[in-house]
TrEMBL record:
Keywords attached to this entry: Annexin, Repeat
InterPro entries named among the record's database cross-references: Annexin_repeat (IPR018502), Annexin_sf (IPR037104)
Organism per entry: Linum tenue
One GO cellular component term: plasma membrane
Transmembrane segments: none
Protein name per the record: Uncharacterized protein
SUPFAM superfamilies for this protein: Annexin
GO MF, one example: phosphatidylserine binding
A Gene Ontology BP annotation from the UniProt entry: response to salt stress
Taxon lineage: Eukaryota, Viridiplantae, Streptophyta, Embryophyta, Tracheophyta
Amino acid sequence: MRAQTHKQKLLLGLVGSFRYDKRVVDMQFAHWESADLFEAMQTKELGYDDLIYILSTRNACQLKDSFKMYEQQFKLPIYEDLKSYGGDDLTSLLKVAVQCIVCPEKHFAEVVFPPLLPLCRVARFVLKNAVPNC
């Protein structure tokens, strides 16, 4: 069987980060994980197994608090640190994942809506041309 890539591991785990409907957060973990995330940023090891593990096994509330702790400890939001990286697929995926976790009401729309635009245009055309005016 083929080994999973870092992108596959991250995507599979992120699907589950929103499966918890309760706010379950361990602030000690948030403190430790923010340090691990910072280490991954400083060493430019975005494929770092601990980084993928953190992002793919924690619920969204835990990740939000870990990102807040990161900002408190290191004086810069994690998504700002990610901006300094290149544009490879894994980095781009990490940027989007972090943004969707930090501010889902804003960024999920940016991720989900663009692929739906063609469908919206077709629906608008059909409604405009096929449905009789009343």
